[in-house]
Amino acid sequence: MPVQSTAAPARAGSRLCVRCGERKAALKRPKTLEQICRECFYIVFEDEIHRTIVDNNLFKAGERVAIGASGGKDSTVLAYVLSELNKRHNYGLDLFLLSIDEGITGYRDDSLETVKRNEIQYGLPLKIVSYKDLYDWTMDDIVKAIGLKNNCTFCGVFRRQALDRGAALLKVDKIVTGHNADDIAETVLLNILRGDIARLSRCTFITTGEDGPIPRCKPFKYTYEKEIVIYPLHDIFQSILRCIYSPNAYRGFAREFIKDLERMRPRAILDIITSGENFRISTTTRMPEQGTCERCGYISSQKLCKACVLLEGLNRGLPKLGIGRTAKSGAGADGNGERQGKRPERNRSSLHGKHGNLDF
Amino acid sequence: MTSCGGGGGGGGCGANCSSSAADDAPEERLARVTISTGAAATCGKCGVGAVVVVAGGVGLCGECLRAHLFGKFKLAVTSNAMVRPTDSVLLAFSGGPASRVALQFIHDMRSKAVESWDASNSQALPVFDVGVAFVDESALLSKPRREVELAIADIKSIVSSILPSDKAMHITPLEDVFSSESNGREGRLRELVGMINDDTGREDLLQCLRMLSLQKIALENGYAKIMLGSCASAIACHVLSATVKGQGYSLPADVQYVDTRWEVPVVLPLRDCLAQELSLLCELDSLKTQQLLDRPCSGINGLVASFVARLREENPSREHTVVRTAQKLKPFSFNKFSANGYHDFLPSRLRPKFQNVDSDESTLSEVLCLICRTPFSESELQNLESTKHKPQKKIDLYTAYCCQSCHFQILPGGANMYDQFFSLLPKFWTERVDTATASQSSLRDQIEDYLLENNDDEN
Amino acid sequence: MHLTLEFGGGLELLLEKSTKVHKVDVPPMDGEVKATMKGLLSWVKSNLIKERPEMFIKGDSVRPGVLVLINDCDWELCGGLDAELEDKDVVVFISTLHGG
């Protein structure tokens, strides 16, 4: 639904784009405070992502790359931009869309429709892996079994693993995700609030899991959410993604704080990322040694991986098994209580956004 | 940092604190008790008094809260060898609860030391001295003169009720940092502050000037240490604001008990106490505070303060967790007393604890920002080096000696204003760069020596 | 004054009628010569929003994280709250605070 020039009488004070000097400026870039027109915006937006990809050697020619596609704005824009850049700059990548079907009626259905549309629009092969196929449980089933508490823990753990499994099926060399600068800044703050120094040291890496089977990278690491939202404007916002099991989509204070900061000082988001990159963390802080799960072979520092523990609990009718804490009574308790697990850094805090989004 | 912990710590929480446990840090989970309003729970420590606060997971009565806070203070002082018997300590007093408690505690410690000194036969070790400084920033406040005078009179009476000697109290206007100019100091301060466009930058510059002012008082009056009332809550705020300002690299420098990067070392004995607990103690013990001259934080610092206040509501020990995160970052070499023989006053059994100096830690002195004295990160150093290596004017050098954060939020908008701006800064700051450049060649030699040494090691 | 308002990114769910596009007729604001965004926001708040107005408004502006475009132009370039509106303008509100 294009709205261009429906009614755009030249307003007093409307300025020209600082880049082309011809067209009317349409937005102020949060990163540089430049006022530029829409046409120039597309150019610099795509260019910056290209630079990020090149400067950080994210890809090698001939690689197979899966785009973690949720149907949301970030991954949709990522899929489009990456396929464009791949053609334009001859990256020589084989791109795939990889989606997870959690089995949430009415929520994933919609977003999977978006992804299927992307498959056709961008001409990228799509692979959908479902919780049902992998674990024999849909999120609908899980919620039926355990109620609305802790279901996000299941979803987060399962999704993380499902993405790796799907990637393995596609035989890709890399997974890219749509995490943007706001997401990363938020994660830096959350890790400070949780005292999680191990994650704090890694959360600003543009590529993670290089020691594991399939590395993941974030081409939008330096891209502001505001620009991702403006980029497609009307095309993509056909459906909003709101998980029905997390109706408030409560992302915690941290997200709101980030937005408050951005309004006061747009560069704060990049400054937080810079801080995250520069923290003096002694090299002795290392993650626990990674082995593999005895049951499914997935990487795990324990005998069984988290997903297998959770599954066992579900299958034996003990859904609390592996949650890492017993939920206290009380409304709004996002799971506060005692810890059972031995891996403190794996535990979610109440500060964690309800969506496993950040773990995706 | 004199007003640290002041404004933020209202007594709104107290015993009604929601007792959601911190699931992320095990030590915080210890026996957090829920205290229902009205129900008279008894103190988890002495089992007698009525609970007034939950601290460290235990409900405490007033008596035990005092002991708990004093214990933390004393432990911080002794285990970090903050105060030597021969020292004079200058306490930065803002009138707020944190520094008010610090005043009480350091005085109590001294009284006890004097008692035992009187009692001991040898009287071998002298007892440290205490003085108090108040930096008067009223030049920048739009408050009626009369109000300011009353507030300052209040501050004086609070201090003299504890330290009767006139010589122990130093009230200095902030503009005195511009010592060389006999008149027009106030105008110069206003002009300097007025050149800064960013609210946060203005506030942060004042913070730097305040520290300079304290340093000056300490140097002129022979104090060996400056003690700040920075409490855990204030430090938690600082951790987050520094992160937001992109100062992740230098952050650990500011959160340690000891900071010797200044002419007179700075110590933070209240680092482990929460603002709320300190305010409550002031209330319980009727410790008078005077915060009329406090400025509420604004800009980024204000946003961070209200964010931290929300976090505190969600979980009272969140501030501790934030401070603990920052403590896990690597401190700098100046975050401990390292002068030869510094620890000689300690009993010999305690000395080894302070002597495990990392030999691999670079002995090179850190390059510090001209304005805020944060240590330079890699990229800031690179920028400085490249400026040094090309033909430059003095102003270019001054600019390169500012950290990226001061660059953005403190330096004035147009580079054409830099000349004026740097000429307004306290001479003390700019002269430091002048001397540093003078000895630059010798520093370069030092670096080369160091590199050579390293090469030798590898071979 | 006729305006076309569009709500996206989840904001439409806060409205009386959960559709994205609203063609509305905004009466002249009290005491104001020209219609401004400030006036429009308070009109939207009292006439269109059904629940959780705090997801949309904070203070007298939109909540940080909500993008506003006037005729496809970032409202920050048009004067923000003081931006003047004219008949047949298209104003878009998009929240970025919902899932990615």
UniProtKB/TrEMBL annotation, chain A:
Positions of transmembrane segments: none
Region (Disordered) residue spans: 325-360
Bias (Basic residues): 349-360
Keyword Transmembrane tagged: no
All residue ranges annotated as the tRNA(Ile)-lysidine/2-thiocytidine synthase N-terminal domain in the record: 65-203
Biased composition (Basic and acidic residues): 336-348
GO cellular component, one term: mitochondrion
Pfam families reported in the protein's UniProt record: ATP_bind_3, zn-ribbon_14
Compartment(s): Cytoplasm
Enzyme class, broadest EC rank: transferase
E.C. designation(s): 2.7.7.-
Domain Cytoplasmic tRNA 2-thiolation protein 1 C-terminal: start-end pairs: 291-321
Pathway entry: tRNA modification; 5-methoxycarbonylmethyl-2-thiouridine-tRNA biosynthesis
GO molecular function, one term: nucleotidyltransferase activity
Biological processes annotated in GO: protein urmylation; tRNA wobble position uridine thiolation
Residues binding ATP, per UniProt: G68, A69, S70, D74, I100, G178, D183
Keywords: ATP-binding, Cytoplasm, Nucleotide-binding, RNA-binding, Transferase, tRNA processing, tRNA-binding
Database matches in InterPro entries: CTU1-like_ATP-bd, CTU1_C, Ncs6/Tuc1/Ctu1, Rossmann-like_a/b/a_fold, TilS/TtcA_N, tRNA_thiolation_TtcA_Ctu1
SUPFAM superfamilies according to UniProt: Adenine nucleotide alpha hydrolases-like
PANTHER family: ATPASES OF THE PP SUPERFAMILY-RELATED, CYTOPLASMIC TRNA 2-THIOLATION PROTEIN 1
Annotated family: Belongs to the TtcA family. CTU1/NCS6/ATPBD3 subfamily.
UniProt function note: Plays a central role in 2-thiolation of mcm(5)S(2)U at tRNA wobble positions of tRNA(Lys), tRNA(Glu) and tRNA(Gln). Directly binds tRNAs and probably acts by catalyzing adenylation of tRNAs, an intermediate required for 2-thiolation. It is unclear whether it acts as a sulfurtransferase that transfers sulfur from thiocarboxylated URM1 onto the uridine of tRNAs at wobble position.
HAMAP family assigned to the protein according to its UniProt record, in alphabetical order: CTU1
Protein name per its UniProtKB record: Cytoplasmic tRNA 2-thiolation protein 1
Annotated organism of origin: Lolium multiflorum
Gene: NCS6
UniProtKB/TrEMBL annotation, chain B:
GO molecular function: nucleotidyltransferase activity; sulfurtransferase activity; tRNA binding
Predominant location category: cytoplasm
Gene Ontology CC annotations of this record: cytosol
GO biological process, one term: protein urmylation
Protein location: Cytoplasm
Top-level taxon in the UniProt lineage: Eukaryota
Pathway: tRNA modification; 5-methoxycarbonylmethyl-2-thiouridine-tRNA biosynthesis
Alphabetical UniProt keywords: Cytoplasm, tRNA processing
InterPro entries cross-referenced by the UniProt entry: CTU2 (IPR019407), Rossmann-like_a/b/a_fold (IPR014729)
HAMAP family attached to this UniProt entry: CTU2
Family membership noted in the UniProt record: Belongs to the CTU2/NCS2 family.
Role summary: Plays a central role in 2-thiolation of mcm(5)S(2)U at tRNA wobble positions of tRNA(Lys), tRNA(Glu) and tRNA(Gln). May act by forming a heterodimer with NCS6/CTU1 that ligates sulfur from thiocarboxylated URM1 onto the uridine of tRNAs at wobble position.
Protein name: Cytoplasmic tRNA 2-thiolation protein 2
UniProtKB/TrEMBL annotation, chain C:
Record family assignment: Belongs to the URM1 family.
Record's comment on post-translational modification: C-terminal thiocarboxylation occurs in 2 steps, it is first acyl-adenylated (-COAMP) via the hesA/moeB/thiF part of the MOCS3/UBA4 homolog, then thiocarboxylated (-COSH) via the rhodanese domain of the MOCS3/UBA4 homolog.
Keywords, in A-Z order: Cytoplasm, Isopeptide bond, tRNA processing, Ubl conjugation pathway
Transmembrane segments: none
Keyword tRNA processing: yes
Protein role: Acts as a sulfur carrier required for 2-thiolation of mcm(5)S(2)U at tRNA wobble positions of cytosolic tRNA(Lys), tRNA(Glu) and tRNA(Gln). Serves as sulfur donor in tRNA 2-thiolation reaction by being thiocarboxylated (-COSH) at its C-terminus by MOCS3. The sulfur is then transferred to tRNA to form 2-thiolation of mcm(5)S(2)U. Also acts as a ubiquitin-like protein (UBL) that is covalently conjugated via an isopeptide bond to lysine residues of target proteins.
Cross-link Glycyl lysine isopeptide (Gly-Lys) (interchain with K-? in acceptor proteins) residue location(s): G100
The protein's annotated pathway: tRNA modification; 5-methoxycarbonylmethyl-2-thiouridine-tRNA biosynthesis
Compartments, as annotated in UniProt: Cytoplasm
Organism: Lolium multiflorum
Any single Gene Ontology cellular-component annotation: cytosol
Gene Ontology biological process terms from the UniProt entry: protein urmylation; tRNA thio-modification; tRNA wobble uridine modification
InterPro entries: Beta-grasp_dom_sf, Mopterin_synth/thiamin_S_b, Urm1
Alphabetized Pfam families for the sequence: Urm1
Coiled-coil features, chain-numbered ranges: none
Protein name: Ubiquitin-related modifier 1 homolog
Entry keyword annotation includes tRNA processing: yes
Major place of residence: cytoplasm
Entry-annotated residues carrying 1-thioglycine: G100
